[in-house]
Amino acid sequence: MKKLNKNKGFSLVEIIIVIAIIAIIGGILAPQLIKYLEKSKVAADTQKCDAMHTALTFALADPNVISADDKSKDWVDKFSTPNESFRLDAGMFGGDWVNCEFSKAVTETLGYNPWTTNAKDQGFKSTSANPATGLIPFVQVNESGTAFAVALAWSDRYGEKQGENFLGEYSELEDSRVIFVK
Fold it and tell me: Among 33, 43, 110, 159, which residue's beta carbon has the most beta carbons within 10 A?
């Protein structure tokens, strides 16, 4: 007669040991994964900044984009140096741009979308700035009847807007530490 083996499955001690090993491995790997996720966010923001810089370069190369009164030439050069930021100043803009208030959410990442002030105002949704300094890089080139804008703004991880000048309600939470990279 065959003897039946009643040892089927794992004992409680074996299961606890396996759980402890998984917890130790998870504790070792978690910080590395968090660093990797942060680096990937920064890399994505850097790519967005590069795309906006390219768009701005093409716009500035078009002689029809610079304003007729040369008002924009005074501050466009502020972005010729990498990693440069500056505070928005009403004196940098002419006419109806001085106290312009934007209220429409721009929902497409790097997508052109009209803001509600009037039909000629266009803008890019963006990420990335420097929370520590409170500086919000912003470039806008205006010509009568048309507008080209590249804006960089940031919000904290809870979606609270930071800084003094914001150009709209963003539809996504953004947490970034990249300044203008090119």
Answer: 110
- How far is Cα 128 from Cα 130, in angstroms, rounded to an integer? 7
- Coil, helix or strand at residue 129: coil
98 Rama sector, left if φ>0, alpha if ψ -120 to 50, beta otherwise:
alpha
Our measurement of the distance from residue 169's CA atom to the centroid of its chain's CA atoms, rounded to an integer in Å, reads: 13
Which among 36, 57, 74, 56 is positioned nearest to 126, based on CA atoms?
Answer: 56
The pTM of the full predicted model, rounded to 2 decimals, is 0.32
Interval 125-150: pLDDT, tens: 333 333 444 444 444 433 333 334 44
Q: Going along 30-124, which residue ranges are E strands?
A: 112-114, 122-124
- Inter-residue contact 13 to 145 (CB < 8 Å): no
Alpha-carbon span 154 to 125, nearest angstrom: 10
Residue 78 sits at φ, ψ, to 5 deg, of -65, -20
- Given its phi and psi angles, is residue 65 left (phi above 0), alpha (psi -120 to 50 degrees) or beta? alpha
Greatest Cα pair distance in the chain: 105
For the chain, the domains span 12-151
**Which residue is associated with the tokens 């942060």?**
38
Burial category of 104 from C-beta neighbours within 10 Å (exposed 0-12, middle 13-18, buried 19 and up): middle
